[in-house]
């Protein structure tokens, strides 16, 4: 009896895996298919303008947010949600299927093997990775290096892909990518051509750009692999000042981070954020070893899957430390900043 039970279970597992593979193909399912379930084309266009382009995107958005989209009534929201549920089962999956889904996760090299090792292979897709550190610790240099390394096919069938770069501090230098491309034997202009760049001027603009990003990712499914925001907090710091605006700032920040998280899962891309530090006035009074901490508070701390702190070492050496990760131990790696981008520290 046990044997038949077991073989039945095995059949079930195979069936589930097949089912999953079908779901796999529907990963980037465009909302156009909702038309087959009675949603009209004009409404779908409205959703797309709001940056919701995939069926998964519909499932990731609350009814309340959907009803805030111009021209989408509550009755329409119900219809859209129902149609989406018919295409992708919104409920539970087995841990086995989830494990299959996690196989789509890829890692992007930082240019330094030691730093990659620290990160368990590199910058992970379907997750938010945040680096923070004082000025000149290499956050922007790492962003430039990742703009190139993302394009290199890598381990476990990773195909390489394009990058979106949102720059809030006007420190992106396209020509900085050229020597980095040379180091990896890539064509300079091809590398630059694969990086979509936008300068954000206000925190609102930064949020609006994410709608365009979602549109881009949807237009070219599977082509983009990394979204960089350097730096995530700079404009929030300017736009909201003083204690009086802190609650408002954190609310807007939470909305933006939730958007970033959804984009990373919806399109299977990595999200790489840089962040600044501030002196913590409370900490200087205590016995804390490092009184400086990343800004953004608990909201950013919880949104980031992996947090890395950077500090200066001798010369061009920098030390990275895992700060907060669900599956990585807290440890350190040393790397160097070179003309060819981030690299292992030389002896
Ligand atoms: P901030 O907080 O001011 O934005 P950051 O952490 O972004 O700082 P980066 O601009 O990434 O810092 O790093 C600056 C460091 O990178 C400097 O030490 C600089 O010497 C080094 N650097 C910049 N370009 C090169 C290059 N072409 N070759 C070697 N090192 C470089
Ligand atoms: Mg910088």
Automatic annotation (TrEMBL):
Output this protein's name. Meiotic recombination protein
According to the UniProt entry, its GO molecular function terms are:
ATP binding; ATP-dependent DNA damage sensor activity; DNA strand exchange activity; double-stranded DNA binding; single-stranded DNA binding
Just give the chief location class: nucleus
- InterPro entries attached here? AAA+_ATPase (IPR003593), Dmc1 (IPR011940), DNA_recomb/repair_RecA-like (IPR016467), DNA_repair_Rad51/TF_NusA_a-hlx (IPR010995), P-loop_NTPase (IPR027417), Rad51_C (IPR013632), RecA_ATP-bd (IPR020588), RecA_monomer-monomer_interface (IPR020587)
Write out the annotated subcellular location. Nucleus
Keywords, in A-Z order: ATP-binding, Cell cycle, DNA-binding, Meiosis, Nucleotide-binding, Nucleus
**Pfam families assigned:** HHH_5 (PF14520), Rad51 (PF08423)
